[in-house]
Amino acid sequence: MEANDFKSSDPITWCPRCGNFGILNSLKRALARLGRKPSDILLVSGIGQAAKMPHYVKANCFNGLHGRALPAAFGARVANKDLTIIVTTGDGDCYGEGGNHFIHNIRRNPDITVIVCDNQIYGLTKGQASPTTDEHMVTKITPRGVILEHLSPLSLALSAGAGFIARGFAQDTDHLTDLILAGIHYKGFALIDVLQPCVTFNRKNTYEWYAERVYKLDSSYNSADLGSAFLKSLEWGDHIPIGILYNVSKPTYEQKAGLTD
Predict the structure, then answer these.
(1) Whole-model pTM above 0.90?
(2) Which of 34, 46, 52, 207 could make an S-S bridge to 69, C-beta 3.0–4.6 Å?
(3) Torsion angle, CA of 118/195/139/126, rounded to 10 degrees?
(4) pLDDT higher at 58 or 4
């Protein structure tokens, strides 16, 4: 299979240079390397710019309500053990409206891969602050700056018990492709939080801003160490780690429920 085998004919409506383009290209390349047919793939999304991604991939697609992608993905996982199920969602969709589903699907540990297109803003609804928006950032609904600390989604996922947690950068598509493929191969709930610029509504967290700060975890890092993963999950500001922060094997929901062969 090649990446073009997963190319949809739908016209793309994202803004030019949107970070979603890098994520889309990485996803199609990962699916090509996976070696499964488009009919074997189900992409599930909610509402938002990231939720448009399934329309731009030739595969099965389900669009749910805002914040409700994970329940639909979980239902599909229980109903069909043969599908490769991938959720594409945004920081507002997953960590805001869908925060409760996020926590409890981590607890269930179904075999799904969740790619969060984290642009730290509500892009589709025109630039409101999201749970991951940096403190003090000025947005349309916070003209004097955000007064809340930004949510650390990787720390939240760790504390909820996730077994696979990674972070990528939309501009580094080779690295992101590897992360997505690793997440798909992981048996259980795999979270990949992707730093992606919103070129229209987030003028702080730009490609240049991220490029000056992100660094890759190297071979000396132990991704099976929970303490190290927590420390890395809290790094933000001048230094932001990308790569697989945590990777340990855990029984899946399907195994516990006797749904596997």
Answers:
(1) yes
(2) 46
(3) -50
(4) 58
